[in-house]
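Record type: monomer structure entry
Structure origin: computed from sequence
Chain ID: A
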Amino acid sequence: MVRLNSAFTGFTGLMDSIHYAKRIQTALITNEKYIANALNKLMKN
């Protein structure tokens, strides 16, 4: 039972790290619509 609990704790920690990394990426990556809009404006000029 202790091994199972330890494995679950490790898995939970891994999933928490993955979710945290995704949040960072989402915050840092520019929105595709914003980029498309900016490129369209540049092409018109």
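Annotation 1: The chain has two helices and no strands.
Annotation 2: The two ends are 67 Å apart (CA to CA).
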